[in-house]
Amino acid sequence: MGKIIEYNSRLLTQLTPYWSTDPSSLLGSHIQAEFSQMRSWLQQLHCDTQTVLRKIQEIIENYIDFQRGRHVQGPELKDTQGVCEIFFQHLSDVDDQFEQLHINRMTTLMCILDNFPEYVINTWWTDVLRFMQELLKSTLIFEEQPPTIIRKDKKFHAKVRWLIGSKIKTFANIDQLTGIATILNNEMVKNVKEGVCSEQSVSKIQNGVVKFEINQNGEVSAKLRECKIMLINRNGSKDSDKKIHEKFAVVFRTRIVWNNTAIDIPLLSLPLCLATHVHQDENLLAMIMWDYAFAERDRLAFEVPDTVQWFQLAEILSRMWNNSIGSPLTDAHLKYLYHKIFFNANPADEADPGQFVTWDQIARANLPGQNFTFWSWFYGAMKLIEDKFKNYWNAGHIYGYISRNQARILLESQPAGTFLFRFSNSSNGKLAIEVRTSDDVLSYGPYKFKSISVMGERSLNNFIQDY
């Protein structure tokens, strides 16, 4: 693209003196051919700029998916910024060429000589200006997203970055650029995505007004530091469960003046939840997990599917376990979890990857005979291992995902004194011990292991020795 811009710029300079020439006198000459070439290059530039813009927007979408924890390779922002800066300069150069054509009244001559509709040329110019606006808006990103759960009066941080970098200097004084962050609910987020201009919010953010700054590497950013939500104005529903399970987003608004036009740019964070108590975290994390994993890119607000296939959920559960514990779940683990959800299936059957599973099955309906959900049970197991037994798990010393009956069958063929740890089916976040005695397999527990910590004085080894 850069070469075409350069060639076209030279050609434009060469052809400028002919703007007032009678078109009929140029017919069949090399000048007519050069005008035709210039028109062709402008058409190519229009096509190329649109293609490059879409590729940049796709890279940024991939970065957001990476922040969601999806299985995509996150782009290097340094490289992405370099591409965005070059592309912004290319768009500026193409805009200059269209403007020069217009000022020198060459557009009409070019179109007559090339038998081409003049309005199409003007449309290309309009498109280039629109592409520049889209680039300005889409390259403003959250480099560091706000926390997925924000508690009232608890400080949080986030970082906004503009990937066109120092090119902002071409139309604005970076030191005078500011932004303001507030909290929006579902309806307000929907309005933002539909282009409705509104200053509404459910909560202001303390320290939410910040200035942009540029560092020695040319990175332009605004850092939200020591921020707090002081008041949570939830929706008007009287249903306390709906209120607790609301999703929100931080919106970061900034305004620039470009091409003599004031442009308001609202940047939305990933969905988050607002909490008043720590005990709410478990259920709120389930909402975030489902949202980050299964929401469509082009959704209007916070819509998510109610149903997904088992293989999709299995991939997410395994990735979560890997992120927290340091190793993914095995096929045997996932088969056990499958039958935990689909408890009516034959335990001997393999997991059906295409089986549909609903949000209610995961996070709303209690497991049979229990007072907790599948998510609560899974999350409790994950937190127990993460907080106390990560090394033991990764060393293969905790079996975990096995039923009492399966453990009995496994141990019956082992010598006396053999034992294994499994997650309790009847309790949340506890381990049970299955022991092979001289004539039987006995079950003990379940145990919460409150006295054990990874770095504490007592370990699982001490517990076994005492036991």
TrEMBL record:
Gene3D superfamilies (UniProt xref): EF-hand, SH2 domain, STAT transcription factor, DNA-binding domain
Segments forming domain SH2: 377-467
GO biological process: regulation of transcription by RNA polymerase II; signal transduction
Gene Ontology terms: cellular component: cytoplasm; nucleus
SUPFAM superfamilies hit by this protein: p53-like transcription factors, SH2 domain
InterPro entries according to UniProt: p53-like_TF_DNA-bd_sf, SH2, SH2_dom_sf, STAT, STAT_linker, STAT_TF_DNA-bd, STAT_TF_DNA-bd_N
Gene Ontology terms for molecular function: DNA binding; DNA-binding transcription factor activity
Subcellular location per the Swiss-Prot or TrEMBL entry: Cytoplasm; Nucleus
A Pfam short name: STAT_linker
Keywords: Activator, Cytoplasm, DNA-binding, Nucleus, Phosphoprotein, SH2 domain, Transcription, Transcription regulation
Family: Belongs to the transcription factor STAT family.
Protein name: Putative signal transducer and activator of transcription 5b
Species this chain originates from: Lutzomyia longipalpis
